[in-house]
């Protein structure tokens, strides 16, 4: 065997090993199955007119490699969707019963639930991680995702209204901070596995898995998180002891910017736009998908907010609480970033918003 041939073989083996390791790394994944630092989905509502061909499963997609929304060619209930590709890692980890991988699914309306428990936060998400890295999905979809033993699917109840969510890839050193944020949010965990190897660093998540809630919980907590590729995020978590609207009373004032917010505006259950504090919060009333396509906030169960156009800041926040009198008493949170591409993508969706009376 010549030296050149041996070098070529070694290079091929190394390259193949790198591909295998990349494929095995836990991360948010795009529709091709490739790892991405973060992605955002915006599931569009089902059209009520008889002539519409839309199913309520179409979605817009944006990730760390893109500058603008792309209307996905996949449906959100497909295993080839970004959510399907990402959560498949969780279902495979559950099947393998690995002691070096942990997962946690939470939703105030779990997959098998009939109603919603107010004993827990109005918060929804999924986490999978090992001692290298993992992902955190924060979303607005009730009864989603299925328990770890059942595999990926999307609930029929999630079709009618718009829904939103974000997936962020984090190194393991961020999970101790995430652990503390979840304590404040008080999630309803319906499926989890956290092997003992993680218990020394992650104190609260194993307790929450057993439905144990410490008596002393911070009223609210704000922390900084760094994605695997260095994108900065702020995470706002409020407990049910913080008796106020998270956007008007905290996020807008903390970030010192006027906000446009899109949360589910159910009749007689919405809070009006608020201009009583130094930084205002305005309710978005209609979402523009294209020049010909738009929908009302009454059809939208998504939860997000952006800095008002014209301000110097470019904040985007995505989370799981509505601007509602009832949810001022619920725990939950928002993850926020000043990523300009994310901000501009959401800003383009705003058709009009409600001013203060």
What does this structure look like?
It is found in: Lysosome. The structure is a single chain. With 357 residues, the chain is an alpha+beta fold. The protein contains 6 helices and 19 strands. It has one domain. It has helices at residues 3-24, 82-96, 175-185, 204-209, 246-255, 340-347, and strands at residues 28-29, 35-36, 38-43, 59-63, 70-71, 101-107, 124-130, 133-139, 163-171, 189-193, 220-226, 232-238, 259-262, 281-288, 294-296, 304-307, 316-319, 332-337, 350-354. Strands 11, 12, 13, 14, 15, 16, 17, 18 and 19 form a 9-stranded mixed β-sheet that branches. It has an 8-stranded antiparallel β-sheet with strand order 5-4-3-9-8-7-6-10. Strands 1-2 form a two-stranded antiparallel sheet. Residues 7-23 have low confidence and may be disordered.
Q: Strand-residue fraction?
A: 25-35%
| End-to-end C-alpha gap | 83 Å
C-alpha Rg (nearest Å) = 21 Å
- Mean pLDDT score: 90
Helix content: 10-25%
Short summary:
The protein is an alpha+beta fold and 357 residues long. It has one domain (26-354). It has helices at 3-24, 82-96, 175-185, 204-209, 246-255, 340-347; strands spanning 28-29, 35-36, 38-43, 59-63, 70-71, 101-107, 124-130, 133-139, 163-171, 189-193, 220-226, 232-238, 259-262, 281-288, 294-296, 304-307, 316-319, 332-337, 350-354.
Descriptors:
single chain, 357 residues, alpha+beta, nine-stranded mixed sheet, eight-stranded antiparallel sheet, 6 helices, 19 strands, lysosome, Deoxyribonuclease-2-beta
């Amino acid at each position: 065997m010549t030296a050149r041939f041996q070098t070529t073989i070694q290079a091929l083996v190394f390259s193949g090993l790198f591909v295998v390791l990349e494929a095995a790394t836990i991360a948010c994944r795009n529709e091709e199955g490739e790892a991405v630092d973060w992605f955002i989905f915006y599931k569009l509502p089902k059209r009520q007119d008889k002539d519409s061909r839309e199913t309520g499963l179409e979605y817009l997609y944006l990730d760390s490699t893109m500058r603008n929304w792309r209307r996905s060619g996949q449906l959100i209930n497909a295993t080839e969707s970004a959510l399907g590709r990402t959560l498949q890692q969780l279902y495979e980890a559950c099947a393998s019963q690995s002691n070096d991988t942990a997962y946690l699914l939470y939703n105030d309306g779990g997959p098998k639930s009939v109603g919603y428990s107010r004993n827990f936060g109005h918060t929804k998400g999924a986490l999978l991680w090992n001692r290298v890295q993992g992902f955190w999905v924060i979303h607005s979809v009730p009864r989603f995702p299925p328990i770890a033993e059942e595999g990926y699917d999307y609930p029929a109840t999630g079709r009618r209204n718009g829904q939103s969510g974000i997936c962020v890839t984090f190194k393991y050193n961020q999970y101790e901070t995430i652990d503390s944020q979840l304590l404040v949010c008080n999630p309803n965990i319906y499926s989890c596995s956290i092997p003992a190897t993680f218990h020394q660093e992650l104190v609260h998540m194993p307790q929450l898995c057993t439905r144990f809630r410490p008596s002393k919980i911070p009223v609210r907590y704000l922390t900084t998180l760094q994605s695997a590729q260095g994108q900065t995020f702020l995470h706002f978590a409020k407990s049910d002891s913080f008796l106020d609207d998270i956007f008007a009373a905290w996020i807008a004032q903390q970030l010192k910017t006027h906000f446009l917010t899109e949360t589910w505006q159910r009749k007689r259950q919405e809070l009006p736009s608020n201009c009583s504090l130094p930084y205002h919060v305005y309710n978005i009333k209609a979402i523009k998908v294209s020049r010909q396509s738009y929908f009302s906030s009454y059809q939208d169960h998504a939860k997000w907010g952006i800095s008002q156009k014209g301000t110097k800041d470019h904040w985007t926040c995505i989370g799981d609480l509505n601007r509602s009198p009832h949810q001022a008493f619920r725990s939950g949170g928002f993850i926020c970033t000043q990523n300009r591409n994310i901000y501009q993508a959401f800003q383009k969706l705003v058709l009009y918003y409600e001013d203060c009376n």
